[in-house]
Known about the structure:
- This protein is of the alpha/beta class.
- It has one domain (7-246): Class I glutamine amidotransferase (GATase) domain (Rossmann fold, 3-Layer(aba) Sandwich).
- The chain has 7 helices and 11 strands.
- The strands form 3 sheets. The chain has a 7-stranded mixed β-sheet, sandwiched between helices. The protein has a two-stranded antiparallel ribbon with strand order 5-8. The protein has a two-stranded antiparallel ribbon with strand order 6-7.
- Helix 2 links the parallel strand 3 (54-57) and strand 4 (90-93).
- Helix 1 (21-29) crosses helix 7 and helix 2 packs across helix 3 (95-103).
- The radius of gyration is 17 Å and the shape is globular.
Amino acid sequence: xxxxxxxxxxxxxxxADGPPGHVGRWLLEAxxxxxxxxxxxxxxxxxxxxxxxxxxxxxxxxxANDDDHHGWxxxxxxxxxxxxxxxxxxWGICLGHQLAATALGGVSKRNPxxxxxxxxxxxxxxxxxxxxxLGPVSGTPxxxxxxxxxxxxxxxxxxxxxxxxxxxxxxxxxxxxxxxxTQLHPEVDHAIVAAWVTDDERTAMADRGLDAERILAEIExxxxxxxxxxxxxxxxxxxxxxxxxxx
Length: 247
């Protein structure tokens, strides 16, 4: 194992435009090694989670139920269930959050209120205060980048909502003792999000009265705020992973 690295996290990346980004950097700096698996590029997903101390499932443009078009999603959900069964620290971001929900019996579906996009306030619930992952960031107001058409509703049995919009759309959830999902994207920066704004997306946004360049500029200007807001979340996940490695 690399010097200074005491724990290994399996990272499932669903497309080249959805890398670990800042979360990956923060986890590395906290002492966690990242094994990034890119099944869309032909990387095989592991048969099991032996040797891993954590699981990080990233976002992607596909839906959580698009297994017929992206065959690795079925295996990803199997790995999520395996992680839940043994209490392996697991964090799903956006699509990863939706995959965790569906893997455990919830539903991911189109948001009837439309796309959630840009810098949005995070509405922490009282349950977030004592949460091992969200607790360190829940005490003060924060904004996070969201870029999603789908939402999780209903949640799997036993899940706890840790953050939601005023309309009740889930932003963060604890699925079990060591498994979490965040609909927001702590990992992204201006460059990552800019890659998502294709010509078709830009036109669709304009049709809804949204200015893509303004939203991208807001995300770029908010970089110091986003670092301060969400690095503690990655640090909290790293502590859970490192604790698991020591057990």
